[in-house]
Fold:
Amino acid sequence: MFTGIVQATCQVVSIHKQAGLKTFEVEMTPELTQGLVTGASVANNGVCLTVTKVVNDKVFFDVMEETLALTNLGQLSVGDAVNIERSLTYGTEIGGHIISGHVHTQATVKAVSNTAEHYNIELQVDPHWMNYIFYKGFVGINGCSLTVGKISEDGFILHLIPETLKLTNLGHYKAGDKFNIEIDSQTQVIVDTVERVLAKKQLLNN
Structure:
C-alpha cells in the first residue's frame, strides 16, 4: 500500500530486455535504499513493483509484458525519471490517500497550460473510467495523490502547485504523453454498487 506522496524522482539508468519482461535499474538516494531488501514493494510511476536486487543504491525491478503494455513503464527509456514511493509504514503521517499501486488505465495529455498564474494539465481518459472521477475527488497520477480540478465528458484537469512540479515528474510531460491512472477504490465500490442496485431495480420493475 502507498499514500500517493512521491518521495523522489529517480533516474532509470539501464533497461535490460529479457524473454517476457524487462529489468529496470533505477538509481535512488541512500535515504530511499536504507533498509530496502529484495522482495520489498516500491511504486514506480504509481506501479507497485517488487525489488529483485539492490546494489550500491541501484535498485532492480523485473516488469512483466502485461504491466509494460498497460502502464507507461513500457514507454520508459534510459535517462527518464520515475516517481518513487516506498511502501506505507504504519505509524507515520499519511498526507495523501491510500492507493494500491495497481494501475487501472492510462490518460493521454491533451494540453499543458503553463502561465505565470497556473500550471494546468488537461487529460483525456476512456469514458468508462470517468464514471469514477469526480470534481474535487482523489485520483492517482503516476503515483501522485492529486485532487481533480475540473471534469468533462472524456477527461479532467489538474491544477499543479510548484512543489508538486518540483518533487515529481509531472512537469516533464507534454501533449500526447500518457500518465498512469489509479482511481480511488472506495469511489469505484460505491459507484459499482449503486449501478448494480439500480439495474436490479429496473429489471424488477420491468
User: Anything to note?
Assistant: Helices lie at 30-33, 65-70, 162-167, 185-205.
